[in-house]
Structure formats: structure tokens, C-alpha cells
Amino acid sequence: MKQKLGLVLSLALCSSYSYSSADPYTYGITDNAAKNALKWSMGSILPQIPGLDISGLVYKYTTIKNPEDDMKVHVGNHNENGDGYTFRETDDWSGVPGNTILKSFSLPHIPIENWGDGFISIEGKGSVTDATVIYSFRIDECFDPQLNPSCPGYVKPRPNIPEVDIYNALDDESVLDSLAADDFEYDEESEANDEDDEEDEPTRIELGLMASSNALTLFKKYNQSKLINMINMQTNMQTYYNSNINGGIYGDKYKLSENQMPDNTRALRNNLAQQLKHEQMIDMQYNK
């Protein structure tokens, strides 16, 4: 009994999903539906996915009561209309002391649309603690074949191509009437003399010559030497040579006397010892 209870609770405490490649179903279990109250909504514990049905239920709870008191505990779910039950189980605790009960049920894949709110109700004297209600479910991946390309009946969607009306000028009666006219008379007031307009407009060659002559006129009053001087004025460094930078000599403010820093006699002895050791090592090379 304890091993079975531990196995069920270990599966229930972590809601999971699994998919089998052999069939188009995804299987899973819910979290504890009664962890917050003895009434719950199925929409709050199950994923809102089309094609879902309930295939099993497990519940466990502990009763607190006197052995001589009458008590019944009902565990179930209302139907979708609320006037009946999709599932209901009754445990009669009358005349027995309080204890813990665990039950599991296999259901014939009842669609989620048939399930209403769940409940644990008490009839008589006593109370219920540590209630656990877990549902096992499956999801039909091919409930809507268009959601999965691997489902039978899947139809590859086609792009929605809008219809475009192509205008054909030859089908336009106004255009045909204009083409059928033999003579076209211009309005005398709107007539224009194209020859006069062509004489007044300057040619491209004339415009180019005008632009070049204007450019030469701008620099005509400056000779080459003046132009060079104007350019050199832009790079005159004389103003920088005449600038003065404030400076001076900053003397040392603090001085250290010899009395404040006596010789390190310990370091002197250490240096002498190292020197003697060095000389002994050299003498050993020459067997002295």
C-alpha cells in the first residue's frame, strides 16, 4: 500500500507530457486539483487544447472523525450542465475510525467537454485533510489535421492569391471612339507655335559655355601670386610662435635628513653574508 501510494504521488507532483510516435496522442497527468480547496475548475488544471479527454483518475485523502459518528465522503465531477455527474465515488466511513484512503479509476477517454467542476463533499460528522486528486489525460494531435502535417487528412494550405482585373484599353468604348475619329481639330486659342519656343530656348552647348565663362569671371581679378598668398594665410603659424605659456620652477617642499633615515645595518649584514657565500662557491669550483 505504501509503495503504491509513493509511486502515485511521485507521478502526480510533477505534471508532465509524453508523446508516442506509434499513435497521434500526447499523454499527461495534472497537478493536484485539490491542493487549494475541496472544489476546483477543470479549466484551471488542464491545458486548454482541442482534442483532450480524461482517461483516468486517482484520489487520496485522510478523514478525521470519531468511530461512532456517521460520515460519507463523495469525490466526483459534475457534468457539463451541472445537473448530474460525469464521475462520482462515495466512501462510507460510518462506524469506523478516521484513516487514509487511496483509489484509482480507469475511464473510457471521456472528452473534456463533458466534465464540469470537481469536488470532495462530506456528509455527516468529520473532516477531510491532505486531499489529492489527479487526472490522467490524452490529447489527440490529429483532432484538427491542419495542426500537424503528419496527420492523415492534412491538406497543404494554399496561398490566397487575390484576383486582379487587367485593364484592356481596346475594350474601352471611349478609347475605341477616339481611335475611330478621322480628323481632330485644335482649338484656335490653344494653338502654340513650336518653332518660336525652340528659338527662345538655349541649347545645351550654350548653357555649358555660359557656365564656364561665369566661373572664369569670378577669379579674373585675382592673379596667381594673390591666390597663393591667400592660401598661405590659412596656414600661418606665426600667431603660435608669439604665444607665451606660464611656467616656472617648482622646488621641493619637504626634505629628509640623514637622522630620519639611518642605514639599515641588518640589510648590510645580509648583503655581506651573501657576498661571502658567493665567493665560497666560486672557490669550490677551483678547489681552493
Q: Overall 3D geometry?
A: flat
CATH architecture of one domain: Sandwich
Q: In which range does the helix fraction lie? A: 25-40%
Strand order of the largest sheet: 1-2-9-4-7
Q: Are there runs of 5+ residues with pLDDT below 50, and where? A: 1-5, 7-21
Backbone structural class: alpha+beta
CA radius of gyration is 52 Å
Distance between the termini: 94 Å
Order of helices and strands: HEEEEEEEEEHHHHHH
Give the CATH class of one domain.
Answer: Mainly Beta
The CATH topology label of one domain is: Jelly Rolls
The total count of helices amounts to 7
Strands, count = 9
**Mean pLDDT over the full residue set:** 77
How is the biggest beta sheet arranged?
5 strands, antiparallel
β-sheet strand percentage: 25-35%
